[in-house]
Write a structure and sequence with these properties.
Chain lengths: 217, 330
């Protein structure tokens, strides 16, 4: 907002209040603000994608600017053709052609994900969990025990091939407690995030907007 | 003695607002009026709960709005407790040598700015104080405006900065994970030019940078996808680059498992940002005079959380009382 014009700040404040009005009930002012938000977002992304993908990535890739020393990247034509095929979805007679780029996207994404996801989110997570129980400090040792107990009991809770009774049932209950604490922490963080948004908006209304409002009228 | 107990690290987040009626803008009288109204409002909700009457959701919205607005206007500032997770990022930057290069990726949009922009500003200020060279980039189309805002915010404190020598901005490239996959091994393949179209080779600070591991440290600040998770998967894992992160609070719990093996530190939401601001202020006293945005947020945050916790407790009391009444009438 550093270089926002006074009229821009004024409109931003009015739109913020218009969106807040939904908390009372659905109303025409909210509808107008919502429509403006969607329209501006769509326009922004259309321009952004055109500039960054079509111009910067494709056009400058195929016809590099003089002095850049880069060679034309002919592989980009493959992407361009797939992009055009995607648009075939809008022509009923040849809409089946749009399946090819979709298949390419799904296949490429799966290929990219397969190894990286497995290594980052499975193998290394398991390795990080399997730490020595006894650490240098008391708190670190307590942390290691907590992780070990939480992991084992959490896994027991999701093991349904054996009835949750006796010691097994008790461990599953401990697992539930760990899960609840995790969900609670997650909820707390979500509240913090949403409150930050509210505080950010109110701070804007009370500082930039109020100051600007006073100067305008 | 009671005040000392309330201001102890354990209780201070809950009770210190009661003793921090020093106001930034509207004076201590307004602060007292705010707290009296806050207690009266909470008391009214509690009274309705005991009586078994409903409190309409719009009243709750209004009360939450007034609570946060009042807390913002009174400018409550609370003590911030530092954690190792954030300190690791600060120490890593503190221990870098003059001239080392840091890659700062701002992967968020204006909705994430209230909690993430303070992180980006504080990390940038710290890097520039240490005379490190910053390369800004983003994986989000809306991130370009965020980078511009950060640069605008820090430039007045560092008028001697030269673009291309002390910092640069390579901006946004479409492609999400594909961008990361490529820059892990070949930075110029995805970013042949900076955001203004200047060829990267002509920027002195980018000499010797061919891939992500050539940066001494990477700080990824993000609020969604593509973001920190993708940085870990596509850059840290295959290239072994050293990375710290700043996450929106809503996504922080899912990212903590990556600490400390896959990223050496993380700032979680406005709390993490306020910790970093505190460390920066202590290490560089000149920042005591500047506005610490995240630290200012933490006061209203705490008041809102206390109000929410009270509502949850009241709702549970209401639930059990209703159950008891139903049992008595049956």
């Amino acid at each position: 907002m550093a270089d926002a014009s006074p009229i821009g700040i004024f409109i931003a404040g009015v739109l913020t209040l218009g969106i807040f009005s939904f908390l009372y009930k659905d109303n025409p002012v909210y509808k107008v603000c919502e429509a403006i938000f969607i329209g501006v977002s769509a326009a922004y992304w259309a321009v952004e994608y055109f500039y960054s993908a079509l111009y910067k990535k494709f056009w400058l890739g195929v016809i590099p600017p003089e002095g850049s020393g880069a060679d034309p990247d002919m592989w980009l034509w493959g992407g361009a053709i797939l992009g055009v095929l995607m648009l075939c979805r809008m022509i009923p007679k040849i809409n089946w052609l749009s399946r090819w780029p979709l298949a390419f996207i799904v296949g490429a994404t799966a290929g990219l994900y397969m190894m990286t996801f497995f290594v980052s989110n499975a193998m290394n997570q398991i390795a990080s969990t399997m730490q020595p129980l006894i650490q240098d400090t008391f708190l670190a040792t307590l942390g290691s025990f907590t992780v070990a107990i939480g992991t084992v009991t959490g896994l027991i809770y999701f093991f349904f091939s054996k009835e949750h009774k006796g010691i097994f049932g008790g461990a599953a209950k401990v697992g539930i407690w760990f899960l609840m604490v995790t969900f609670g922490a997650s909820f707390g963080y979500t509240v913090m995030s949403r409150m930050s948004l509210l505080i950010g908006r109110l701070d804007f209304l009370f500082s930039s907007w109020a100051t600007n409002f006073g100067q305008m009228f | 003695m009671i005040q000392a107990l309330f201001l102890s690290p354990v209780f201070s987040p809950l009770f210190s607002p009661l003793f921090s009626v020093v106001s930034h803008g509207l004076g201590p009288v307004f602060s007292w009026i705010f707290w009296i109204l806050f207690v009266a409002g909470v008391g009214w909700v509690f009274w309705r709960t005991i009586k078994g009457r409903e409190v309409e959701r719009r009243v709750i919205f209004l009360m939450m709005g007034l609570t946060v607005a009042g807390a913002v206007l009174t400018g409550i500032v609370l003590p911030v407790q530092e954690t190792v997770v954030v300190r690791n990022i600060f120490d890593t930057i503190e221990n870098l040598e003059e001239g080392d290069k840091v890659l700062l990726s701002l992967d968020y949009d204006p909705s994430g700015a209230p909690e993430l922009q303070p992180m980006a500003i504080a990390v940038s200020q710290h890097c520039l104080e240490k005379k490190l060279k910053i390369c800004y980039m983003t994986l989000w189309g809306t991130g370009g405006a965020m980078i511009a805002d950060v640069i605008t915010a820090i430039r007045p404190d560092f008028p001697e900065l030269v673009y291309g020598e002390d910092y640069c901005n390579v901006g946004y490239r479409a492609g999400n994970e594909a961008v990361l996959k490529v820059i892990a091994t070949d930075f110029r393949k995805t970013f042949p030019t900076d955001v203004s179209g200047i060829v990267l080779d002509s920027l002195p600070m980018m000499t010797g940078v061919t891939a992500c591991p050539d940066f001494s440290y990477i700080v990824a600040i993000g609020s969604g996808r593509p973001g920190i998770k993708e940085w870990v998967e596509y850059v840290v894992e295959p290239s072994g680059a050293l990375m710290g992160s700043g996450a929106a609070a809503v996504s922080a719990p899912q990212l903590y498992p990556y600490y400390p093996q896959q990223m050496n530190g993380m700032m979680g939401g406005s709390k993490g940002a306020s910790e970093y601001e505190k460390m920066l202020r202590r290490g560089y006293p000149k920042y005591g005079e500047f506005r610490a945005q995240a630290t200012e947020i933490m006061g209203p945050q705490t008041v809102a959380h206390v109000f929410l916790m009270l509502l949850i407790i009241f709702a549970n009391i209401s639930f059990f009382l209703a159950k008891k009444r139903k049992g008595a009438s049956a």
